């Protein structure tokens, strides 16, 4: 069964350019993961500091490989310095089939 989620976070004022750069780099890495089926980062139209990232992984093993990647750990460590709150808010999704 696929693992599907979205992550949301809000960037602190002044960190917009750095986080955009970080997201582009992370996106390139994640899309190369064999088990990644979709990785789509967005910013909200009405507030570009608010991010929404839709992610789909082939299965639990693919997701575990994703979260154990060293580039992801580096991303999350630096992201914590640039966002409001304690981290990304994750929402897990189930298909309606």
From TrEMBL:
GO terms for molecular function: monooxygenase activity. Residues 3-93 form the ABM domain. The keyword tRNA-binding does not apply. InterPro entries: ABM_dom (IPR007138), AI-2_Isomerase_LsrG (IPR050744), Dimeric_a/b-barrel (IPR011008). Signal peptide: none annotated. Pfam families: ABM. Coiled coil: none annotated. Keywords: Monooxygenase, Oxidoreductase. PROSITE patterns: ABM (PS51725). The keyword Oxidoreductase applies. This is Quinol monooxygenase YgiN. It comes from Arthrobacter ginsengisoli.
């Amino acid at each position: 069964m696929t693992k599907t989620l979205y992550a949301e976070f809000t960037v602190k004022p002044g960190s917009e350019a750095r986080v955009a750069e970080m997201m582009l780099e992370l996106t390139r890495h994640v899309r190369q993961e064999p088990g990644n089926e979709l990785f789509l980062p967005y910013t909200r139209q009405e507030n570009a500091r608010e991010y929404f990232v839709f992610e789909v992984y082939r299965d639990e093993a693919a997701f575990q490989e994703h979260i154990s990647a060293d580039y992801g750990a580096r991303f999350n460590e630096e992201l914590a310095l640039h966002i409001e709150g304690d981290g990304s808010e994750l929402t897990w999704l189930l298909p309606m089939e």
